[in-house]
Write a structure and sequence with these properties.
This protein is an alpha+beta fold. The chain has 18 helices and seven strands. α6 runs antiparallel to α7. It is globular and about 60 Å long. Keywords: DNA-binding, Transcription, Transcription regulation.
């Protein structure tokens, strides 16, 4: 229940290729319990598992792992075969090179390259030929390759920079969850920069763990926002340990061994605040429970620290554009 929810923008963007192809996805949304009204609300969020199932459902329905955004369809199973081809490599560098070589065998596949820049490594994507107005495929490919590499070596690859070949999009605030690092927009190519020390690391995965990994991937990789190393992420993890008690800022600062003033300043530098982080966590916990029938609206309100259900109703509508009751009705 502590997982970050997914902005409705990404679900709308994921459906863009299907719309382009004239595919009627209303039945798929009904099957997944995702209402069109929910997707039309800009502030709405959906649960990570719903987003995973949406991506998987679109792959199967469109018979295309690129979801209609590429120059040609990518047959379902292509990603899995690439993983099988790479899993036996002795280190991350060999695995990434083999994976990119595998995709280069398909002339219409998006072009990714891996280049050394002194002590750094840049994974670049040529996204100029893609039909990708919302940049969904660009975002997805960069996220998938980063998280696949991290999974292969059993540790998160720290990103030093993320660059994008387009201006900062309207949903740019969500990029902190996808690319927890400094970002640059309007560059020649979209790319990720990380330290070369990861390349010689041995793979810690094998055919057995790959089988389990592929049951939900790469869709699952997209639906798990990267908590990263930022103070905001550390604070969220600290708050989520005991969400029912909701410690105040002074108590959290003491736990982090810094002054409240320093905590406020660092959060301002990350363009957020203690209250905003607390509200985001409350929102995500509420959405988790509203998608299930175990707790009443009053019980959810109490668990989130609201003294009155009406206060919870007002706050939730402010966060998502919908009342808790309307949200639960659309999730059923």
């Amino acid at each position: 229940m502590r997982e970050r929810t997914i902005a409705s923008h990404f679900a709308r963007a994921a459906l863009g290729g299907a719309r382009r192809l004239g595919f009627d996805y209303s039945g798929l949304l009904l099957q997944l319990g995702i209402s069109p009204e929910l997707l039309d609300e800009p502030r709405a969020r959906i649960a990570p598992e719903q987003f995973t199932r949406l991506i998987q459902g679109l792959w199967l329905a469109l018979d295309d792992e690129y979801l209609g955004f590429g120059n040609a369809p990518g047959k379902p199973g292509t990603f899995a075969m690439m993983c099988h081809a790479s899993i036996h490599c002795r280190n991350l560098e060999k695995a990434l090179q083999r994976g990119l070589l595998f995709y280069s065998l398909f002339p219409d596949a998006p072009r990714l390259t891996l280049n050394r820049e002194d002590e750094w490594v840049r994974l670049s994507l040529d996204d100029s030929p893609l039909w990708d107005p919302d940049h969904f495929l660009t975002e997805s490919l960069l996220v998938i390759w980063h998280r696949l590499g991290s999974w292969l070596i059993g540790q998160r690859i720290r990103l030093e920079q993320a660059s994008f070949s387009y201006p900062r999009p309207d949903h740019g605030a969500e990029y902190d969850l996808l690319f927890p690092c400094p970002m640059v927009f309007g560059t020649e190519r979209s790319s990720l920069l990380f330290h070369s020390r990861y390349l010689p690391m041995p793979l810690l995965q094998d055919e057995r763990t790959l089988k389990h990994f592929l049951e939900r991937s790469p869709a699952d990789l997209l639906s798990r926002p990267d908590d990263g190393d930022s103070l905001s992420s550390r604070l969220r993890r600290l708050l989520s340990r005991d969400a029912a008690r909701w410690p105040d800022l002074e108590a959290v600062a003491a736990d982090l061994h810094i002054s409240p003033q320093t905590l406020r300043r660092h959060l301002r530098e990350e363009a957020t605040s203690f209250q905003e982080l607390k509200d985001q966590l409350r929102r995500d916990i509420a959405i988790y429970h509203l998608g299930r029938a175990e707790l009443s609206l009053q019980q959810i309100a109490e668990q989130l620290g609201f003294s009155e259900p009406s206060a919870f109703h007002r706050a939730f509508k402010k966060w998502t554009g919908l009342t808790p009751g309307a949200y639960r009705a659309q999730e059923q």
